[in-house]
Amino acid sequence: MRYLSGIQPSGKLHLGNYFAMMKPMLEAQERANVFAFIADYHAMTTVQDPALLRESCREVALDFLACGLDPTRSVFYRQSDVPEVHELSWFLSVLAPMGLLERCHSFKDKTSRGIAASHGLFAYPVLMAADILMMQSDVVPVGRDQKQHLEVARDLAIKFNNAFGESFKVPEPAIREEVAVVPGLDGQKMSKSYNNTIEIFGAPKETRKKFMRIVTDSKTVEEPKDPETSVIFQLYALFAESGERAEMANRFRAGGYGYGDAKKALHEKFESVFGPMREKREALARDPAYLDDVLADGARRARAVADETLAMARQAVGLH
Ligand code: ADP
Ligand code: TRP
Question: How many other C-beta atoms lie within 10 A of the C-beta of residue 33?
């Protein structure tokens, strides 16, 4: 089985990204072939500052490695090291009905938030489909907001296969229900664009303060509380073992347990998981040559697969 997913270098890694995409990819390394990539072409739809793009790419690469991506076992690469993806994107573009792309929410969402309504932003789901089909991916772990894009990728794989003969695997999304939408500090979906994120590798002091800012209702310490509607509990549940989860839920319901205490417990859990990764990340950041080697090796391995897929697809469509 081949797992593939990517993340745009357009902001700092947050808990939503980690639980929906990063963690499933890391777990898949134990049993599958993993392709993880940095979607820098995609990020160009919003980042048009060359120094920032370059820097963010390296930051995301450090994030992946610090969280446990093993670049010897998995193929870890920058999208822009596989420029062949644009040729495949064209093959898919000519099959992609305008109506299908017009129905994609993400274009409307992004333009309504002030992002330029460029052709690139509109065509983005086709490039994403090319990322996926290029590596003949079976499974694509993502958060729920990417579900529609996965449907586009599946549609285009089927359209290509119908038009030119069996060529591409039809990928399956892997969306974990319990983490499909991770809430942010304000209770809305955690997202860079809502300014409500908890960053995985933010400065420790700022991060602690963020936990203290999580919204709550105004119940006093003594009052019983409902764990299910509490963002604190929802976030705690992402980290905790089932026993710990039940224990916190009981404390909420019993009363005498304040939101401040719950926030502290959540922050401690966060630190116990991400503290060691933060240290690993700091060590990795001191060795830029290692990162260069990892990305060069990933580029070579990803390109070998892309070359093969593209030769097959060119043959199928009748080029040469
Ligand atoms: P953002 O919304 O912060 O811009 P991205 O669009 O870069 O995040 O998302 C990268 C990956 O993380 C995608 O697979 C996306 O579905 C997932 N993701 C982002 N935010 C959340 C969230 N709050 N809950 C679940 N998954 C999320
Ligand atoms: N569109 C994804 C996001 O914004 C990133 C991405 C690009 C991706 N290509 C992909 C994810 C292929 C999974 C598979 O988060």
Answer: 16
CB-CB contact of 271 with 278 (8 Å): no
Identify whether 264 is a catalytic site residue: no
> How far is 88 from 92, CA to CA, in rounded Å?
6
Q: Which parts of the chain are beta strand (E)?
A: 2-7, 33-38, 75-78, 139-141, 172-174
- Residue 193's pLDDT is 86
Round to whole Å and give the CA distance between 315 and 320.
7
Residue-level pLDDT at 18: 97
Look at the pTM and tell me if it is higher than 0.85: yes
Whether residue 225 lies in the annotated active site: no
Instruction: Give the pLDDT of residue 320.
Output: 80
| 10 CB near ligand 2 (under 6 Å) | no
CA 111 vs CA 104, 106, 194: distances in Å: 12, 8, 14
Q: At a CB cut-off of 8 Å and minimum separation 6, what does 178 contact?
A: 237, 238
Both structure tokens of 117: 């309504």
Single-letter residue type at 207: T
The DSSP symbol for 81 reads G
Structural domains in the chain, CATH included, are 2-181+288-317 (3.40.50.620), 202-282 (1.10.240.10)
Give me the catalytic one of 12, 23, 159, 189.
189
pLDDT at 3: 98
Please give the average pLDDT of every successive group of 10 residues along the chain, which has 320 residues: 97 96 97 98 96 97 98 98 98 98 95 94 98 98 96 98 98 93 96 94 97 96 96 96 95 96 97 97 98 98 98 96
Q: What residues form DSSP beta bridges with 173?
A: 140
Token representation of residue 49: 């500052």
Which atom of ligand 1 lies at the shortest distance from residue 8's CA? Answer: 7
β-bridge mates for residue 5, sequence order? 36
Is 110 catalytic? The answer is yes
- Ligand 1 geometric centre to CA of 31 (Å): 24
